[in-house]
Design brief:
By secondary structure, the protein is mainly beta.
């Protein structure tokens, strides 16, 4: 009886050992298979730019549908818009441009110039999770206080890169911006019935006499072709305001006229003028062609119809949206509609607008 039990125990032990051997063998085989798959995928990653489709490089940014930006230290270039496709991991360099041409479910297609050599360009596909389109950029993470330079009471400062010594700047909600708009405290310009467009000239017919103010468009000057657009009449200044646009350089200025006395170069602004008559202030805020935006505050001298610049600041973190939508609510507080510096609209996608409040120190002037 005992002998039979021993035989049964031996048989059971044999089957258990067999099961363990088979199980271990299967696990080893699975691990080997998984290792092979990982190694295979690792081999697939080992590609070069020679594996990407060669294309004609971007020689005109105006032809680019949209640009892409990233905050990562490195990004992945795929050979096709497929997460299982082979890819190349490259370090992000600030001087590189990522020109977007098409949007897929999880990818953007880009045209990329290797080492910034237009003649050596490829098409690659990048993950949406690693990049942000120019139309989706927001102010989050932007240092709003950063400035490139400033001028205060005729004293230039190229070293201090913060707006803090002049006041505060912060992003506000659309609700705060629109609520503040109801307390706007600056002059509203009106269209003068005496300023009319006759042929290709702006003329004033005040006092029954026609006086040419300026040619309407395509005025040839040393600076290129200029066009003039009528903005309105400033009752405080007693002057007509025109926007001057240079068609060659895409620059614009706002100029001030007294039709009876002619044009005075002593009074102009680079952006739409914001005037507070109670303190003789003429100011403007506009996008800078080089970087960021320009904020100017000047004192107006009624006797000489000239301005004395009190504060100029070149902000680096944002561009101005609609210049006319900026406004003062008192002597120290200015609101503006802005965009991130690299923001740009594309067909079917608007830029994400943001709103800022610039609060000057009460004793600044």
């Amino acid at each position: 009886m005992n002998s039979r039990r021993e035989q049964m125990n031996n048989v059971s032990l044999f089957f258990i050992l067999c099961f363990l051997v088979i199980a271990v063998g299967c696990n080893s085989q699975n691990k080997t298979t998984e290792t092979t798959k990982v190694e295979t995928k690792a081999v697939q990653k080992g590609i070069t730019f020679a594996d990407f489709k060669k294309i004609k490089g971007v020689d005109n940014v105006q032809d680019v549908p949209f640009q892409l930006f990233t905050k990562l230290d490195s990004v992945h270039f795929f050979t096709s818009p497929d997460k299982d496709a082979t890819f190349l991991k490259i370090p992000y360099r600030k001087l590189d441009n990522y020109y977007g041409f098409e949007e897929f479910d999880d990818f953007y297609s880009i045209h990329y110039s290797i080492a910034n050599n237009i003649a050596n360009s490829v098409e690659a596909f990048v993950l949406k999770s690693e990049f942000t389109g120019a139309f989706d950029l927001m102010l989050k993470g932007v240092n709003l206080y950063e400035i490139r330079s400033s001028v205060y009471m005729d004293k230039s400062d190229l070293k201090d890169k913060s707006f803090a010594k002049y006041g505060e700047v912060e992003e506000v909600t659309a609700e705060e911006y629109h609520a503040a708009l109801k307390t706007k405290a600056e002059e509203i310009f009106t269209k003068s019935p005496h300023v009319k467009l006759k042929g290709n000239d702006w003329i004033s017919d005040k006092n029954g006499q026609e006086q040419k103010i300026q040619q309407y468009e395509n005025l040839e000057t040393e600076d290129g072709l200029l066009s003039y657009y009528y903005i309105g009449y400033s009752n405080f200044l007693g002057l007509e305001i025109f926007k001057e646009e240079n068609q060659d350089s895409n620059n614009s200025y706002y100029t001030f006229y007294n039709p009876e006395e002619g044009f005075s170069m002593d009074l102009f602004t680079s952006g739409y003028p914001h005037i507070i008559p109670s303190i003789n202030r003429v100011s403007s805020i506009s996008s800078n062609d080089d970087t960021g935006s320009d904020f100017l505050v000047a004192q107006y001298l009624p006797e000489s119809k000239q301005q004395i610049n009190q504060l100029y600041v070149n902000f680096t973190g944002f561009k101005i949206g609609d210049e006319k939508k900026g406004f003062w609510i008192n002597h120290d507080t200015f609101y503006a509609e802005v965009y991130p510096v690299n923001s740009a609209a594309i067909k079917g996608e608007k830029q994400k607008v943001a709103y800022l409040k610039i609060q000057l120190k009460a004793d600044l002037f």
